[in-house]
């Protein structure tokens, strides 16, 4: 934007400038804004081995413990997180698949829908006015490929939030997490600790936080610490079953959310009933075929 245009733009009433920001920066309601990251483990002996065991068996040389020890989260030095830049290819979640989620490259349309940051950096006034529009209602999801001991997704989310300017951070209203075993850590107690840490970080730093979107496979109860978020007035937790066309439930209070964490989702029960019905039909078919075969023999 040259100086003449900038002066003209700043002469417009704030309401009109807000409409420009909204047109250029507001998120599409259905979009998830994916941010790719990679973990690096500078002190591990075999940082690339995909062990995925609950014991995290790799030798670590970090200065937090005496030499030659086995890596232990929350005792050892944690991994470094590298966030992909705008020039890097963008990978989107296609399907949950436990250890190895299926990712795909972003489509041209998805790439075009990503907001351009040029405008917000034109000057300080525009930055202050436009940041809330850019961040409000945008569902951010941190996403990575396979990692040796879980993807440390909540940890990476917290690191990413900490890198934002205080103004930007305070206007993050929505965050998305994939919740299944190995997503955060292969040790469930460490996943719980990490979710607890993220919840408290949100309560302390995200002044306008409104919604946590959990993509969750059934019977993954480690998400319980997120019930702390209901301490903040107006918070909603949206849980979507991690299956194709999965059911979505919204929670507004801790009690209901915690009940959902421990009970299998309704879809699970109806699916089991359908399976049972099909099995019964199948066994009736087998019986009648058997009867027919026997009567033919007779
Ligand atoms: Zn260590």
- What structural class should be given to the helix and strand makeup? alpha/beta
Instruction: Report the major sheet.
Output: 7 strands, mixed
Rg to the nearest angstrom? 24 Å
| Residue-averaged pLDDT | 84
Approximately how much helix is present in the residues?
25-40%
Ligand inventory reads: zinc ion
Q: What would you say this structure looks like, in words?
A:
It is a single chain. The chain is of the alpha/beta class. It has one domain (3-39, 81-263). It is built from nine helices and eleven strands. The protein has helices at 3-11, 14-25, 108-112, 124-135, 153-163, 166-170, 188-205, 254-262, 266-297; strands at 32-40, 59-60, 69-70, 80-83, 91-95, 102-105, 139-143, 174-179, 211-216, 236-241, 248-251. Mean pLDDT is 84; it is low at 265-269 and 293-298. The structure holds zinc ion. Zinc ion is lined by residues 43, 60, 62, 64-65, 69, 71, 76-77.
Q: What's the arrangement of secondary structure elements?
A:
Blueprint: H1 3-11, H2 14-25, E1 32-40, E2 59-60, E3 69-70, E4 80-83, E5 91-95, E6 102-105, H3 108-112, H4 124-135, E7 139-143, H5 153-163, H6 166-170, E8 174-179, H7 188-205, E9 211-216, E10 236-241, E11 248-251, H8 254-262, H9 266-297
Parallel strand pairs: 1-7, 7-8, 8-9, 9-10
Antiparallel strand pairs: 1-4, 2-3, 5-6, 10-11
Helix pairs in contact: 2-4, 5-7
The structure holds zinc ion.
């Amino acid at each position: 934007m040259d100086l003449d245009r900038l002066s003209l733009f700043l002469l417009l009433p704030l309401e009109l400038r807000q409409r420009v920001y909204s047109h250029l920066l507001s998120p599409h309601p259905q979009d998830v804004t994916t941010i790719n990251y990679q973990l690096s483990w500078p002190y591990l002996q075999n940082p690339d081995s995909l062990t995925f065991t609950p014991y995290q068996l790799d030798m670590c040389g970090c200065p937090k413990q005496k030499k030659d020890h086995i890596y232990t989260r929350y005792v050892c030095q944690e991994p470094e997180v590298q966030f992909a830049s705008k020039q890097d290819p963008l990978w989107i979640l296609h399907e949950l698949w436990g250890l190895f989620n299926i990712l795909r490259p972003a489509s041209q349309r998805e790439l075009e829908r990503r907001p351009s940051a040029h405008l917000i950096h034109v000057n300080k006034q525009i930055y202050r006015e436009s940041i809330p529009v850019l961040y409000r209602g945008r569902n951010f999801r941190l996403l990575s490929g396979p990692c040796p001991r879980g993807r440390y997704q909540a940890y990476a989310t917290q690191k990413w939030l900490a890198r934002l300017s205080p103004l930007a951070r305070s206007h993050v209203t929505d965050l998305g997490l994939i919740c299944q075993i190995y997503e955060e850590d292969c040790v469930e107690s460490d996943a719980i600790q990490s979710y607890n840490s993220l919840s408290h970080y949100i309560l302390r730093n995200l002044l306008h936080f409104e919604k946590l979107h959990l993509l969750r496979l059934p019977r993954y109860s480690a998400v319980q610490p997120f019930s702390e978020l209901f301490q903040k007035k107006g918070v909603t937790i949206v849980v979507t079953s991690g299956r194709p066309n999965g059911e979505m439930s919204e929670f507004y209070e801790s009690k209901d959310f915690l009940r959902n964490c421990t009970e299998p989702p309704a879809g699970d029960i109806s699916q089991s009933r359908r399976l049972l019905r099909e099995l019964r039909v199948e066994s009736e078919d087998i019986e009648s075929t058997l009867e027919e075969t026997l009567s033919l023999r007779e």
